[in-house]
Write a structure and sequence with these properties.
Layout lengths: L9 E6 L2 E6 L16 E5 L3 H13 L3 E5 L2 H15 L6 E6 L7 H10 L6 E5 L4 H9 L4 E4 L4 H10 L4
Parallel strand pairs: 3-4, 3-5, 5-6, 6-7
Antiparallel strand pairs: 1-2
Length: 164
């Protein structure tokens, strides 16, 4: 397993469905994105046409989007993002469907939090109830969007996440 130094903020390794992360120190000057600033978005949605639409909207706003078809693919992208490429857990946001094959967005959020990783997560669901929303909020989800949702709601949720 790779380990992070405080200078790299976080590195992770996904192994057999478990995610482990060492958090480092990051700047406390958190602020929302300025208009035109880019964010890296890991987008996980098992409905292909919806995933395509959400990715198109986020890219039109200038964000870099990496798409995943299910929770297993999402975990692989998280590993790639943290370990091999982006090096910082606070450098991106995850947008994930709560119910997907493999692991759902709520499962991935729980794994991140158990690993003490504060990567921002926005959850989307067509089957949301109060219990699911409460669990998501307890785990620190930035937002839970019920399908169908306004695309501007997703845009706003991504835009308002503080950067470090």
């Amino acid at each position: 397993m790779l380990r992070a130094s405080p200078a790299t903020s976080a590195l992770a390794c996904v192994e057999k469905g478990r995610l482990s992360v060492d958090r480092g120190v990051h700047d406390s000057n958190d602020r929302p994105l300025e208009r035109g600033e880019r964010r890296r978005v890991l987008l996980a949605e098992d409905d292909g046409p919806l995933r395509d639409l959400l990715a198109e909207v986020l890219r039109a706003d200038g964000h870099e989007v990496v798409e995943a078809r299910d929770g297993v693919e999402l975990l692989a992208h998280i590993e790639n993002a943290l370990v091999r490429r982006w090096q910082r857990a606070d450098a991106f946001v995850i947008v994930a469907d709560i119910h997907m094959p493999g692991f759902g967005g709520l499962d991935v959020l729980a794994m991140l939090r158990v690993a003490n990783c504060a990567t921002p997560v926005i959850l989307i669901t067509g089957f949301g109830d109060d219990e699911v929303r409460d669990e998501a909020r307890e785990l620190g989800a930035v937002a839970v969007l019920d399908k169908p949702f306004a695309l501007d709601a997703l845009r706003a949720a991504v835009q308002e996440i503080p950067t470090c």
